[in-house]
Amino acid sequence: MSSIQLALNDVACTGCIGKIKRGMEKYRGVEKVKILPGSGKIEVNFNENIIQSEEISSKIQKLAFRMFD
């Protein structure tokens, strides 16, 4: 299992961050998603045989953009 931390600089609302967390938990290969309080970051533990870190980053960006549409 691998881990990646990504900044959510454009997302200030804790409700929006929660929606991103729940959205990421639905993807195949994502094992655990954790919000890092006070840092504006999210940590994703994933199975690199199923999903790659680049895909995770892309999916988080898409989820974040949907919050503002």
Q: Can you describe this structure?
A:
This is Heavy-metal-associated domain-containing protein. Residues 2-68 form the HMA domain. It holds the Pfam family HMA. This protein is of the alpha+beta class and 69 residues long. 39% of the residues lie in helices and 28% in strands. The protein is built from 2 helices and 3 strands. It has helices at 14-25, 53-67, and strands at 2-7, 30-36, 41-46. A 3-stranded antiparallel beta sheet has the order 1-3-2, with helices on one face. Helix 1 (14-25) packs across helix 2. The protein is globular.
In short:
With 69 residues, this protein is α+β, with helices and mostly antiparallel strands. It is built from two helices and three strands. The protein starts with a strand and ends with a helix.
Shape: globular
Q: Supply Rg.
A: 11 Å
Query: Main sheet: which strands, in order across?
Result: 1-3-2
Q: Tell me the number of helical segments per DSSP (H or I, 4 or more residues long).
A: 2
Strand content: 25-35%
| SSE series | EHEEH
Main structural class: alpha+beta
Q: Estimate percent helicity.
A: 25-40%
Tally of strands:
3
pLDDT average, as an integer? 85
Uncertain segments of ≥5 residues (pLDDT<50)?
A: none
* Major sheet description: 3 strands, antiparallel
Distance between the termini: 33 Å
Task: For this entry, give a set of tags.
69 residues; alpha+beta; 2 helices; 39% helix
Task: Describe the protein's topology.
Layout: E1 2-7, H1 14-25, E2 30-36, E3 41-46, H2 53-67
Antiparallel strand pairs: 1-3, 2-3
Helix pairs in contact: 1-2
